[in-house]
Design brief:
The complex is a heterodimer of chains A (59) and B (829). With 59 residues, chain A is an all-alpha fold. In chain A, helix 2 runs antiparallel to helix 3. Chain B has a 6-stranded antiparallel beta sheet, with helices on one face. The longest helix of chain B is centred in the middle third of the chain and has 54 residues. The chains are: A mainly alpha (59), B alpha/beta (829). The interface between A and B is large, with 32 and 45 residues.
Chain lengths: 59, 829
């Protein structure tokens, strides 16, 4: 996908998750793909560190 | 020389036959009356670049309106439609680019086309250095109807247009998609969490719910739930603390107590039945073997076997040396040693049959046990409420109405699935009973050593199996409808008995692992949501910063073009900015002065500018985008409004010159005769390529003719009518060729002098006829045959007297051929 202002946007970002999401958006070929990729990233983020009994997720 | 050297169009929109436009310099003007195909040229260039038309993508509210609009309506469906161009690539080489229409727009479907670069299929033009922007404004082409639309559209549509013009649509897309991601993040839907929420909503279990939520391990969850059960147990006067009672057992006791208390209000057990039993039809192999063996046995002899067995079991029969009395007929000493031996041999030979009967007896016994269980289990599938009369059911409904809102109606809706389940359960039970009766009858015949036929049992078993299978779906339907309602009933009953939350507590206590997992998922979700909110806020902030920087740059660029378009005007363009604190809307600010040099006030430009000023603003913004994008060419369709005399000159002079100076090839399409005249005069020295577009009839299609007085254009014009062989045309063609010959000679002279470092222009030879011009060419001939050819051309094309015959067609062709040759040899680079 053509994202002319992507670089400028990435330079301004400070949040780690925001950086990852914007990068995923920029790598997609089209908006529909970007939407799916963003959901996948969030699912992985949400499931990150989940053990069998959920112990790892407890704050 | 511009990026686009020529363009050729065939079959596209207003065009039928191929029409070619050669661009001799970086400036071209295509003029013609309205509705004669001007915009078709612009759209053809757009189609060549991106394979679609902006009007459909951007303006098309109803895409069906664009069905079959790219192919000329008067051409057959299989007529070729294409647009070709020679484009100077980033490498400096000239490449032939062609886009062929393969499928026109449908009522909903997009058009399809094939792009070729130098005859090879390509996916885009980026290799040539032509990078398209994001939709909807992908190409460096400005359509006047687009500007007009954008300025009169709704704020959101207008914002979208200007975001595209300013090249910031991608920022909005990123922001929107991440906002959608955040908004779409769903909390985990888990029954345990819902129960916990209810538990937390009131005393006396709110503290228990808080402890469960705070638990860090499964053990802590169990402990918190156990404490809750103690509280509930005290309330219900229930001893839930046995010495070895597990949490699950204590939860079970609690549920039983609640159910017992609630039966008086609504007995849920009458609406609950058992799950349909599983049934494996019993094996019949031994029975089949017995049935076959039995058919070959003599019935009378078989009955005697029992007598033989009984006789041989007598103690006297053990001593064969003395005959014994017959135990049946009491004949003395009738059973001699020989007879007893025969009896033993007979029984021995019938041993197989007896073994078969024993196996069959065992098998039918198993079948009977299985069918007895089946008949019993099937009988418990249908809830008791399915067999009650209407009066009794109305009592249920009345209780449901007391407990739940619309309880009567909801229970009434359950009656259909209940009836269906009851009916199917009855059929299954009857089929099981029939099979049981068939098996019982079979066993009786086996006991009597009678022949057996398995057909009846087999049929009955198949029917039972079928009816049992037919029970599954009604049971599922009923359970799905009944259980949520029954659960609500229990909750409602519990609420009336001040045991609210106890049911939830007991259910949670039965699966503390599930509660712990659900809480872990919830915590993860909360953390993800918090992180995503922070990420979105960061994206929005960053988008704002990029926009601010972009707006600042664009503001300066737009102001430059505005000043070129509107010099010395008291209204000034100030800046483009985001509206308020939002990021989605773009606003243009204007400074209104009462008179030049006086203080002004700031206002939203779109609200205060005149139609003409808004048009200039739209054009200025678009040109700013062209410069910022580094586009190498721009196509401007009707850039000056009709009748806007004041700003025609500012465009033709200030804007066009600035664009050319910036290295941008400019192709202007206009119906404005005055603009055409102005630009022809102003830019003749380039020379500017001029074209007139016209359409005799729609069926003929649009035709393009070069209008500038360059040698090439004049030769092209003469060539167009040379084939017509009648005296009037020959006379006119001779005149055209003479003009062309004079122009060729002048351009050769100017070129030769310029190359020699001498200042020269076409104007130096103003008014000179062909004879003197040919004489002036003498020093520059490249071939010894050229002087003679020039003189022949002069002779053939010189005007005779009024009555003289016009030149013959062949003479005109020879003259044209020689002039083309001179043009090629002396004037082409």
């Amino acid at each position: 996908m053509d994202v002319p202002n992507l670089k400028a946007l990435q330079d301004e970002l400070k949040n780690e998750l925001a950086v990852e999401l914007v990068a995923v958006f920029g790598r997609a070929d089209k908006v529909e793909d970007a939407r799916g990729d963003l959901r996948s990233v969030l699912s992985a983020y949400n499931a990150g560190g989940e053990g069998d009994d959920g112990h790892d997720q407890v704050d | 020389m511009g990026t686009i050297k020529w363009i050729e169009i065939c079959g596209f929109r207003a065009f039928t036959k191929p029409q070619r436009l050669d661009f001799a310099s970086s400036l071209a003007l295509i003029s013609g009356p309205n509705s004669h195909g001007k915009t078709s040229i612009t759209e053809a260039i757009e189609f060549l670049l991106c394979g679609e038309t902006l009007r459909r993508a951007f303006l098309g509210g109803a895409k069906a309106e664009f069905e079959a609009t790219l192919r000329n309506a008067h051409l057959p469906a299989d007529a070729p439609v294409w647009v070709k161009a020679a484009i100077v690539g980033a490498d400096g080489a000239v490449h032939e680019v062609e886009r062929r229409l393969q499928k026109d727009y449908g009522a909903e479907g997009d058009c399809e086309s094939a792009l070729l670069v130098d005859g090879v299929a390509a996916s885009g033009l980026s290799d040539l250095g032509i990078v398209l922007a994001n939709p909807p404004l992908r190409t460096p082409i400005l359509f006047q109807h687009t500007v007009r639309f954008a300025l009169s559209a709704s704020p959101s549509e207008r914002a979208r247009y200007f975001r595209a013009v300013l090249g910031i649509e991608d920022l909005e897309l990123v922001r929107q998609e991440i906002a959608a991601l955040r908004d779409g993040l769903q909390a985990p839907a888990d029954p345990s969490l819902a129960r916990l929420d209810r538990l937390a909503s009131g005393e006396p279990l709110a503290a228990c719910a808080a402890d469960v939520r705070a638990a860090q391990t499964v053990e802590e969850v169990e402990s918190a739930l156990g404490a809750g059960i103690e509280v509930a147990g005290e309330k219900l006067e229930l001893d839930t603390e046995g010495p070895t009672a597990s949490l699950d057992q204590r939860a079970g006791l609690l549920l039983e107590k609640i159910a017992a208390r609630s039966e008086g209000a609504f007995d849920r057990s009458e609406f609950r039945g058992a799950a349909p039993p599983t049934f494996d039809p019993p094996a019949l192999s031994k029975l089949s073997a017995f049935a076959i063996a039995g058919r070959s046995v003599d019935r009378d002899v078989e009955r005697l076997h029992r007598v033989f067995e009984a006789t041989l079991e007598l103690p006297e029969a053990a001593d064969p040396s003395h005959p014994i009395d017959c135990p049946v007929c009491e004949t003395e000493e009738a059973l001699t040693e020989a007879r007893l031996r025969e009896m033993r041999e007979e029984l021995s030979s019938a041993g197989d049959f007896r073994a078969s009967r024993a196996a069959a007896t065992a098998e039918i016994g198993e079948a009977l046990a299985s069918l007895t269980r089946l008949e019993r289990d099937v009988a418990s599938v249908a809830p008791a409420a399915g067999s009650v009369d209407d009066a009794r059911f109305e009592e249920y409904e009345a209780r449901a109405a007391d407990l739940l809102e619309e309880g009567k109606e909801r229970l009434g809706r359950l009656r259909g699935p209940l009836r269906e389940l009851t009916e199917k359960a009855k059929e299954a039970r009857e089929a099981a009973g029939k099979a049981l009766r068939a098996a019982t009858a079979l066993r009786a015949r086996i006991d009597k050593s009678e022949t057996i036929d398995l057909a009846e049992l087999q049929t009955a078993l198949a029917l039972a199996d079928e009816k049992l299978g037919a029970l599954a779906a009604p049971h599922t339907r009923y359970t799905a409808a009944a259980e949520p309602l029954l659960a609500e009933m229990l909750q409602a009953v519990a609420a009336t008995q001040d045991v609210s939350g106890f049911v939830d507590l007991a259910e949670l206590a039965r699966s503390p692992q599930d509660v712990f997992r659900a809480l872990a998922r919830l915590r993860r979700h909360v953390a993800t949501k918090r992180d995503l909110d922070a990420a979105y806020e960061d994206v929005e902030r960053a988008v704002g910063k990029v926009l601010d920087a972009k707006f600042k740059t664009m503001s300066g660029e737009i102001a430059t073009w505005w000043k070129l378009l509107r010099p010395d005007e008291p209204v000034e363009f100030m800046r483009v900015d985001k509206r308020g604190t939002g990021r989605r809307f773009v606003t243009f600010k204007a400074l209104l002065r009462p008179a030049a040099g006086l203080e002004g006030v700031e206002r939203d430009a779109l609200g205060v500018l005149s139609d003409s000023q808004l048009n200039a603003l739209g054009l200025a913004a678009f040109l700013a985008r062209i410069i910022k994008n580094g586009d190498r060419f721009v196509v401007l369709d009707d850039p000056v409004q009709a009748g806007d005399e004041e700003h025609r000159a500012t465009f033709a002079v200030g804007v066009v010159e600035a664009l050319l100076k910036a290295g941008v090839q400019v192709i202007v399409v206009s119906h404005e005769h005055q603009l055409s005249k102005l630009m022809h005069n102003r830019y003749e020295h380039l020379p500017m390529s001029g074209f007139a577009i016209s359409m005799l009839t729609p069926g003929d299609g649009a035709r393009v003719v070069a209008t500038t007085d360059t040698a090439e254009a004049l030769l092209q014009r003469a060539d167009a009518t040379l084939a017509i062989d009648n005296p009037d045309y020959r006379k006119a063609n001779a005149g055209k060729l003479r003009d062309a010959a004079e122009r060729v000679a002048k351009e050769i002279l100017v070129k030769q002098r310029l190359e020699a470092g001498e200042p020269a222009s076409i104007a130096d030879y103003e008014g000179q006829t062909l004879g003197p011009l040919i004489a002036a060419l003498e020093p520059f001939h490249q071939d010894s045959s050229h002087p003679g050819k020039w003189r022949t051309v002069n002779t053939m094309l010189s005007p005779g007297s009024h009555d003289a015959d016009p030149p013959a067609a062949n003479e005109l062709k020879i003259a044209l051929g020689d002039l083309k040759r001179f043009h090629k040899d002396y004037l082409r680079d």
